[in-house]
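name: query_chain
kind: protein
chains: 1
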Amino acid sequence: MNVLVRQIFIADKSAWLNLYESYLEFYESESDQPSVELLWNRITKDSPEIQALVAEIDGEVVGIVHFHYQLSTWTQSWHCYLEDLYVREDSRGKGAAKSLIEEVKRLAIEHKCSELFWITKESNQVARKLYDKLASQSDFVRYEIKLTND
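structure:
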């Protein structure tokens, strides 16, 4: 099965939106229309603030990935954070997720990044089977504080 990974186009909005909403649902998060529109604008600007790729199988968009570059305080190079990755359930196991990660890796190397990283839920066993083949699991523990902008 051939997987085509390419930059996102404006014409992909409907397919992207369906996949992004499924991604949010998977992570038990609700779609916030202003935030979704903001993300869409950030990934489709002439100079995107967040990078986005899609995976196609047989001409149909079946997967998305969002990532961005950040400066490192530890090195003179950039790091690449793969923030969102989602492949439609009926298209899993066909190489779309692996192809998306490999393309992000290629672009990160091209951007002179010294590290590509991502996080997932510990319970996301299906994805972790692939991730364990492609990357090393870090021993870092993530902490977070939810902030409000009142």
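note: The helical segments are 13-26, 33-44, 96-110, 125-134.
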